[in-house]
């Protein structure tokens, strides 16, 4: 568990409830690592004032990292990054164009305003949380140890799949 007396460390924003299926994996990973978070639907286009308010107040509220998921003309992560110096992780969500528009809208930031962009869709949702945990683990030994445990489990899963494959093929 991170040592912060339960204060939210990660601010997780989604452009719409239609992004939730992608972000369920993100929220599950944050819970798994015991990272306290605040989550909210907030759109760069539909609620621009709230987006600016959340991002500009995030550092003073004690947040250490922001995760922003959006699809299509996915400007949320970039807009948030323009209002804060906290690290912002962008998750491109699937869209009518399979998320390629979301990916390009999120990743193609102008020099000076970075957004760490993960993969389109559910893998990106999970990785956004893992990247946030890696950032928090820089100053939290218990999270760093938990990440080592997570990595070990990934290896065990692959080993189990290899055993199952051998069994299936009778090798
Ligand atoms: C984006 O537009 C949202 O992030 C969502 O991915 C997409 C569509 O939103 P809805 O019309 O489903 O609310 O701003």
Write the layout of secondary structure elements.
Blueprint: E1 10-14, H1 20-32, E2 37-41, H2 48-58, E3 65-71, H3 76-81, E4 88-93, H4 100-107, E5 116-117, H5 122-137, H6 141-169
Parallel strand pairs: 1-2, 1-3, 3-4, 4-5
Helix pairs in contact: 1-5, 5-6
Distance between the termini: 42 Å
Please describe the biggest sheet, giving its number of strands, its sense, and whether it closes into a barrel: 5 strands, parallel
- The unreliable regions are none
Spatial ordering of strands, largest sheet: 2-1-3-4-5
- List the ligand species: 5-O-phosphono-beta-D-ribofuranose
Helix fraction by DSSP (H/I, runs of at least 4): 40-55%
Short description:
This protein has helices at residues 20-32, 48-58, 76-81, 100-107, 122-137, 141-169, and strands at 10-14, 37-41, 65-71, 88-93, 116-117.
Structural key phrases:
171 residues, alpha/beta, Rossmann fold, 6 helices, binds 5-O-phosphono-beta-D-ribofuranose
Describe this structure in words.
The structure is a single chain. The chain has a five-stranded parallel sheet with strand order 2-1-3-4-5, sandwiched between helices. The chain starts with 9 loop residues before the first strand and ends with a helix. It has a single domain (10-140), classed as Rossmann fold. Helix 1 runs parallel beside helix 5 and helix 5 (122-137) runs antiparallel to helix 6 (141-169). The relative contact order is 0.16. It is built from six helices and five strands. The chain is 49% helix and 15% strand. The protein is an alpha/beta fold and 171 residues long. The chain has helices at residues 20-32, 48-58, 76-81, 100-107, 122-137, 141-169, and strands at 10-14, 37-41, 65-71, 88-93, 116-117. 5-O-phosphono-beta-D-ribofuranose binds at residues 15-16, 18-19, 43, 70-72, 93.
